[in-house]
Amino acid sequence: MKGLRIYALAYLLFLYAPILLLPLFAFNNSTIIAFPLSGFTFGWFVELWETPALHAAVKNSLLIAVATAVFSTLLGICAARAGAKYEFPLKRPILGLIMVPLVLPEIIVGVSLLIVVVQLLDWQLSTWTIVAAHTLICTPFSIAILNGAFQNVDTSLEEAALDLGETPLSTFRLITLPLVMPGVISSLLISFTISLDEFIIAFFLTGSDPTMPVYIWGLLRFPQKLPAVMALGTLLVLLSIILLSIAEYFRRRGVRRAGLKDTGGFL
Amino acid sequence: MSTPNAPPLIQLSDVDKYYGDYHALRSVTLDIEQGEFFSLLGPSGCGKTTLLRTIAGFEDASSGVLMLGGENMKGVPANKRPTNMVFQSYAIFPHLNVFENVAFGLRKKGLSATEKDTKVRDALAMVGLDGYGDRAAHALSGGQRQRVALARALVLQPKVLLLDEPLSALDKKMREQMQTELRRLQRQVGITFILVTHDQEEALIMSDRIAVMFEGEIAQVAAPQTLYRRPASQKIANFIGVMNFMPATATPAGGVVNVDIAGLGIATLDADQCPGGVPNGAAHVGIRPEMMSLLFYGETSTASVAQGVIEEQSYYGDMTYYDVRLEGVSDPVTLSMKNIVGRPVLERGEAARVSWDPRALVLFGN
C-alpha cells in the first residue's frame, strides 16, 4: 500500500509540476526562464494587455471556440438522441464511425483537411475552415457526454408527456431538453475548451488571422517574449480549470436529477 | 355505470400485435363498459402491458380494430386519445414541482390561471395531497408520487384511465391502502379504469371484471367471484389461488354431469360447474382448499366424506394448511382450516376425516 501511495504522488508530480512552473515564471521579474527566481512582477501580464496582435488572436480563438461548441453540441444532440431512442440498420457501425475522430491523430486530420479545403474545394483558408475542422474533432466528445445524458432520460417521462397531450416536438422541448440540459452545458464547455486549446489543426488551416495557440507558437521564436507566453499560459490553465469544473458540476447535477448513481466522468 | 344498451366504451376485435416474429397479442377480442373497473391479469410476458399500451396509443396493433368511444383509433397518436395513463414508474417530471406536474396536461386547454389553479387544487385534494403543490418532485415518497401521477391523469377527465402495475413499487401496507383508495376514487369519478396487474389478489379486490391473459391470449373474462369459483381451465384455476385436481370420468346426463372421481365415488354436478364446457370421458375435478374441511371427534356431515392421513401441516396463525392423503386418491389434497377457539391443530401422521360439498367442485375437460 505504501509503495502505491508513493507511486501515486510521483505520478501526480510528474503530471502537474511542469504546469506549476508556468505561474512561477509568469510572475518572475526576468526575461530568462531559469532558477533562481529574481523577483516578483505583474509586468508580463501588463505586456499581454498591451499587445494588440494578441487581442486579435484571442478574439479569433474565442469566436472559433464558441461556434465550434454550438455546432458540435447541436450535432451531438442529434446523434445522441438518435442513438438513445431509435433502432435503425447499421446503428452500431454508424455510431462507431462518428466516434473515430476521437482517436485519429490530429496531424492527419489537419493535413487531409488542408488538402480537401485548398486543393479539392479551392476555398480560402479562414476562421470558418478552422470552425469546421474543430467541429469535426469536438463532435465525438459532445456525443460521448450527451449519450449519457440522453440515456438517463426515462422513456416513460416522454411517453407521459405525449399521453398528456403534447406533440413529439413539444415533448422534446418541455421534457427531454430540460432533463438533458446539464449534459448540453457540459458538452458546450468541453468542446469550447478543446477548440480553444487546439493547435495542430488550427496551424494547418489558419489563413491570415492566427488563433491564440498559433500566435503563442509564433512568439516562441523570440526569447524575450517567453515570460509573456508564460503569463498567457497561466491564464489559459486557469480558464481551462474553471470551464472543466463548471462542466463537471453540471454533469453531476444531471446525474443527481435523474436519480442515478455516478459512474464517472471527466473529473 | 353504463346505460342499458349503450355500446361498450372500448371494443377490441381480433387485435394482433407482432414484435418481429414475437406474437405479443393473439386475436384479442374484448369489450369494456363505461364506468367499469377492469383488470388485465396475467403472469409477466403475457401481453397485458402491450394491450394497455395499445389502448393508450403507444403501440400500434399489427391488425384488428380498436374502437374507443365509438371512434376507430387506428392512426390516432397517444396525445390525441381520450385516455390517460399512470405509469409503473409514475413518470413524475423531475424538473417540475407537484403543481406543475399536475397542471402539465392542462397547458393546451386554454384555461385561465385561476381555472387552472382550481382544477389542480381539486385534483390534489381528491388524491389527498392538499397543500403539496410546491413540493419538488424528488422530495416525494413512493405513495405520494403515485398520487401525483393519479392527479395528473384525472385532472384531464379522460374517458379511460390506464394503470400499468401502479402498486407494484409500494410496500405491502401502502399497497393495501392504495387498493382501497383507488377503488373509492374510481367510484367517485365514474371514469373507466383499466388496471394491469400480475397480482391476482389485487385484481380480485379491486375489479368489476377481470380478463385473465396467458401468452398473448385472453383466457377468461369474468367478475371476480365467477373467476375464482368457476375458472374456465386448470391453468386459470392455478393462477388465481390454489386448487386441488383429481382425475375423474365425466358422463353427461341431461342437464347434469355424473362424475366418477377416482377413489372417491360418484358425484352429480350442474352444467354451471363446467365453466370450460361440459366434458365427456376423462376429465379432472377441482376444489379449492377452503372448500374442504376436517371433521373432528364425533362431527358428522351430510356432504361427501373421505378418510385420510395428515401428510404435511403448515401453521399460518389465522389458518392451518394441511396436505391430506385420502384413501384411494393418488395425490394428497391441500385444505385449509380457520384456527377458531376449541379447534385442535392436527399433526403429521394423524388420521383425518375430510368433508366437502359437491357444489364446490369444478369440472375440467382434459
Structural account:
The complex is a heterodimer of chains A (267) and B (366). Chain A is mainly α and 267 residues long. Chain A has a single domain, classed as MetI-like (MetI-like fold). Chain A contains eleven helices and no strands. In chain A, α3 (52-85) packs antiparallel against α8, α7 (155-163) packs antiparallel against α8 (168-197) and α8 packs antiparallel against α11. The longest helix of chain A is centred in the N-terminal third of the chain and has 34 residues, at 52-85. Chain A starts with a helix and ends in a 10-residue tail after the last helix. The mean pLDDT of chain A is 85. In chain B, a hairpin with a 2-residue loop joins β1 (10-19) and β2 (22-32). Chain B is an alpha+beta fold and 366 residues long. The interface between A and B is medium-sized, with 19 and 24 residues.
Please name the fourth-level CATH homologous superfamily of the largest domain in chain B: P-loop containing nucleotide triphosphate hydrolases
Largest sheet of chain A: none
Remind me, CATH topology of the largest domain in chain B?
A: Rossmann fold
Give the strand tally of chain A.
Answer: 0
Task: Summarize model confidence as the mean pLDDT of chain B.
Answer: 91
What is the name of the CATH superfamily of chain A? MetI-like
Strand content of chain A: under 5%
H-E string of chain A = HHHHHHHHHHH
Helix content of chain A: over 70%
Question: What global shape of chain B is seen?
Answer: globular
User: What level of helicity do the residues of chain B show?
Assistant: 10-25%
Q: In CATH's first tier, which class of chain A applies?
A: Mainly Alpha
Order of strands across the widest beta sheet of chain B?
Answer: 6-7-8-3-9-10
Largest interface: A-B, 19 and 24 residues
Q: Report the span from N to C terminus of chain B.
A: 39 Å
Label the CATH architecture of chain A: Orthogonal Bundle
The total number of structural domains of chain A is: 1
From the alpha carbons, calculate the radius of gyration of chain A and give it in angstroms: 22 Å
